[in-house]
Amino acid sequence: MCGLRGLAAQLTGVALALPGGAIGRRFGDKTTVLGALILMLIGTLAMALSDSWSGQIAGRLVGGAGGVLLNVQMTKMVADWFAGREIATAMAIFVNSWPAGIALSLLTLPLIGTAYGVSAVYLAVAALIGFGLVLLAATYQPPAHSVTPATASARLHRNAVIAVVAAGLIWGLYNVGFAIIFSFGPSMLVERGWSIAAAGSIISIVLWVTVLSVPLGGFLADRSGRPELILAGGAASRLQCCWWRCRAAARCC
After folding, report:
1. Which end of the chain is more exposed for a tag (fewer CB within 10 A), N or C?
2. Per the domain annotation, does 146 fall within a domain?
3. What is the domain range of residue 215?
4. How far apart are the two ends of the chain, measured CA to CA in Å?
5. For the chain, what is the domain count?
6. Is residue 147, in this structure, part of any structural domain at all?
7. What is the CATH number of the domain that holds 68?
8. Mean pLDDT, residues 56-80
9. All residues at 6 or more sequence positions from 185 whose CB lies less than 8 Å from its CB, including other chains
10. Average pLDDT for the chain
11. What is the pLDDT of residues 155-208, one digit of tens each?
């Protein structure tokens, strides 16, 4: 059940990923991100104040909607700031905030929940969201060279569409596997007798490896000027790891 609630936050991405860009063009980058943070705050507080299953799912959906808008718009903001200069490294650091945040939460939130209850966990997350909201509202300024969206819609070239679809499929499949790890992994270990804190700690190892490898990949792509080679090397390494895992599982059987 905990895994299903975790994945519920991602379901709104299906409906909001595409219109998220249009919403950002209509209201502006900063305003859209502030609205996304407000949605995340409302969803988190709803989960903190509700003990019912329907209340938890509703909070996840509202918070997930904010998370999707946040990701779409902040990706564009990072691109504006680093267009033409080490964009791969900057984007890698930005993308890395997701696994880094999850890893920290797996280490700290179980301890808070064990000591003070589940509501305290949600309130701690809400406090961080509120802090980020105030910090963004008070300090963020767009870059001077920020790209202004065209008022007239232009038809995408066929090759561009194919490239975007391929990248989206790769990113989507990667995130499916990633989400399964931290959504269902701790629950599986708890069912096998692990404590909540120990299960969160061991699952977080996967995320800490990602924290180190993702910026390294972006740095190597920028420095080498051969991002395709870095992608091919990463894919080959993943296939090798899958092969090792299959051989290990075969030996166990």
Report:
1. C
2. no
3. 2-141+157-252
4. 29
5. 1
6. no
7. 1.20.1250.20
8. 87
9. 199, 203
10. 81
11. 667 888 888 888 888 877 877 777 777 777 888 888 888 887 788 788 888 778
